[in-house]
């Protein structure tokens, strides 16, 4: 069975603090994809990153960085120097290699206070 | 490209009524997905279309639910005899069937803003 666990329900930080959102997944597949999406109050899920299971290279995009560790089945997301506009619910997701069924975690709600 | 469009954005209905939602995917996206999201949870997969063919249905999709994509473009999701437990956000997503001209792979799903259903 496939499963995504985001243990942090809510996180509150002050602007300019760094924050890490945790994601742990379970799958029996040897190849799969991992995603992070952002859901602002408007409701639309915004794609942030996709990672293939065979590529463990970490990635940085501006203030965002992702740490993929296959050995611990984790795909954590760090926001550096957080801003109020980062306030949203963030979802980690796991997708089979067929490319259609995506399993989402329950999400982590991030509050960034000015 | 415009994004995925969903209508209506909100729907309030009485228990027992039928409702229909519409999703217009990003043009040229062959794959279309429906998800359901309840409060405090992540989206749950409901069904998937490749062009007009419905290729996968979740067990969450009871007999009261039906989805169509008649011409391989827009899709509709109908719920018959609505129940209070159907209250949720219904999300639609689409993805291309191949790497497009800017190199985006087929399995990245782009989501609409959803239709929020409230069953009274």
Describe this entry's structure for a reader.
The complex is a heterodimer of chains A (about 110) and B (about 120). Chain A is mostly beta strands. Helices cover about 0% and strands about 55% of the residues of chain A. In chain A, the strands form 3 sheets. In chain A, strands 2, 5, 6, 10, 11 and 12 form a 6-stranded mixed sheet that branches. A 4-stranded antiparallel sheet of chain A has the order 3-9-8-7, with no helix packed on it. In chain A, β5 (about 35-40) and β6 form a beta hairpin. In chain B, strands 2, 4, 5, 6, 9, 10 and 11 form a 7-stranded mixed sheet that branches. Chain B has a 4-stranded antiparallel sheet with strand order 1-3-8-7, with no helix packed on it. Chain B is mainly beta and about 120 residues long. The mean pLDDT of chain B is about 90.
Provide a concise account of the structure shown.
Chain A has about 110 residues and is mainly beta. Chain A contains no helices and twelve strands.
